[in-house]
Amino acid sequence: MITLQRTRLAGLQRKAAQQLRAAFGGPWWSRSSRILLLLAGFFIGSNLTVHLENATGARTFSAFFALIACELLVVLRRRSPWLDYLRLGFVYAVVLEAFKVGS
User: Fold this and answer.
1) 3-state SS, one letter per residue, for 42-76
2) pLDDT tens string 65-78
3) In angstroms, how far apart are the furthest CA atoms of the chain?
4) Residue 5 has pLDDT above 90, yes or no
5) Which residues does 100 contact at the CB level (< 8 Å), separation at least 6?
6) By three-state DSSP, how is residue 12 classified?
7) How far apart are CA 76 and CA 72, in angstroms?
8) More confident residue, 21 or 55
9) What is the pLDDT of residues 26-40, one digit of tens each?
10) Average pLDDT over residues 42-69
11) Residue 4 — pLDDT band, cuts 50, 70, 90?
């Protein structure tokens, strides 16, 4: 978006576009692996919450185990930055499941 004036909104849009270009820039294999990791994290998160709820019988414990899994991904992220995309997909799936349940 080309603007004639330098406003805060234009600066925010420019900064968001630069971050998106940096996140999904690079070679094709890098972009595709990031997208696959996002989708894998979403798949794991959506299935893990359902299976944990069936295994434990309580939503509180399944949410606790999902929180532990998310925190483990944060700790392991320091060793491998690719796990951050897996964590983002996982958190998105858990939040979406919470909206579906209504809690």
Assistant:
1) HHHHHHHHHHHHHHHCCHHHHHHHHHHHHHHHHHH
2) 888 888 888 888 88
3) 59
4) no
5) none
6) helix
7) 6
8) 21
9) 788 888 888 899 999
10) 80
11) low
* Residue 78: partners with Cβ closer than 8 Å, 6 or more residues away: none
Report the C-alpha gap between 63 and 20 in whole angstroms.
31
91 and 49 in contact (C-beta within 8 Å)? no
Q: Region 54-61: what's the mean pLDDT? A: 73
Give me the count of residues in the chain. 103
Tokens of 94: 């858990």
Spatial contact of 20 and 33, defined as CB atoms under 8 Å apart: no
Residues 4, 87: Cα–Cα separation, whole Å: 39
Joined together, the tokens standing for residue 5 give 């004036």
Contact 45, 52 (CB under 8 A): no
